[in-house]
């Protein structure tokens, strides 16, 4: 029998989602298409919509419906949607409309400053905007409330029920187990990868990326591929999930890895239930789980020998003059070189986590007040020297390389590492449950893997917590050992350890 209260809640949440997705369209356009002079008014437009969305979501009618439904005996899915809506409502009501509007305006202006600072390689251009962001995030932590540390409130936005205690345990293992293993590899001779740094036509690279995305199962009738300075994925619904990539005509693997990575994100969004639009069951679970999908495709699959057995000949035919003397095994070794580097998005799957660790340490220190914004570049450079024994030559390849702080995304970076660790655990479980997945990937058939992910990850939305989903899928909560076992197997073989 139809539940009129639940149906009305669905209608209201769908309307709130409409406003949210309209904001996402404006943000996507700002990243991809907007002329420089349009940015200030875009900040105003997004801020206005953010205020309307906040008012609508925190309305008395919606709140009363949630309270009524919490007293009813609902089926599991409906019950979880109501519970998650209640959780979101409590968090949203912590914000004032003034804060929501101010947040949108401050971050939109900061994005403009970051773009200019990065282009001019000058942190001072972005410094004041970053200071405003930090103050905004401290205010947000106070509004949301927290236990023990204000950064916990910010982590919870992206990875619910995760704290610095959880993250410190994981990053301690990065600083010990992963660091020791990476050091062994640093000391080994490096394969030749110079053939990746020849001149590769931009349009041909994009065409090949589209070929790989189609092979993965990305639906181009429900998405598109564009170019941006920082690759990203955004979704306006499961029927419109878009991605961007970055193309370097002097480095072949940039667009390939970025496209596969963002494609993993988009497949997750395309796998959510269309009928659940606006509901918790129709939204991604957490950014750590979201990142697990992109990292699984980018690394566990996209940097595997099996994957390139299926795709290297196609790549070689497109760039025959550049790759004619390159063997499959040499290409596989080249795309898996482990060495310290300055740019997070271009780093290998081992040193990547030191990039995340550094950002985590900076964010935590800024929010607790033990680090001043003026001192961030020096802290950054010292940390890169400490963990990777390298130093940036300028702010663009150093403290300004990521767009996230201009978005106000404090608490976001740790989810990148969490995603990799979830990915290793999910992928190992997938091939244990269906040992034909790897064989099919080698033949260019990605459907069995996508089917497994749809059934075990995508379709559930937010019906379970991250810990619950991981245990449901793999039999245990997140376990760093899966990642260490994966990289030890792979790189011990590659580097003859």
What key attributes describe this structure?
497 residues; mainly alpha; three-stranded mixed sheet; 22 helices; globular
Which structural class do the helices and strands define? Answer: mainly alpha
Distance between the termini: 63 Å
Computed Rg:
22 Å
Report the average pLDDT across residues: 94
Strand count: 3
- Ranges where pLDDT stays below 50 over 5 or more residues in a row are none
Name the overall outline.
globular
Question: Which percent range fits the helix content?
Answer: 55-70%
Q: How large a portion of the residues is in β-strands, by DSSP E? A: under 5%
List the helices and strands and how they pair.
Layout: H1 4-32, H2 39-57, H3 60-70, H4 76-92, H5 97-120, H6 124-144, H7 150-158, H8 164-186, H9 202-216, E1 225-227, E2 233-237, E3 240-245, H10 253-270, H11 287-301, H12 305-318, H13 320-323, H14 328-334, H15 352-368, H16 376-388, H17 404-407, H18 414-433, H19 437-442, H20 447-456, H21 466-474, H22 480-494
Parallel strand pairs: 1-3
Antiparallel strand pairs: 2-3
Helix pairs in contact: 1-2, 1-3, 2-5, 3-4, 5-6, 6-7, 8-22, 9-10, 10-11, 11-18, 12-14, 15-16, 18-22
How would you describe what is shown here?
- The relative contact order is 0.11.
- Helix 12 packs across helix 14.
- This protein has 497 residues and is an all-alpha fold.
- It has 22 helices and three strands.
- It has a three-stranded mixed sheet with strand order 1-3-2, sandwiched between helices.
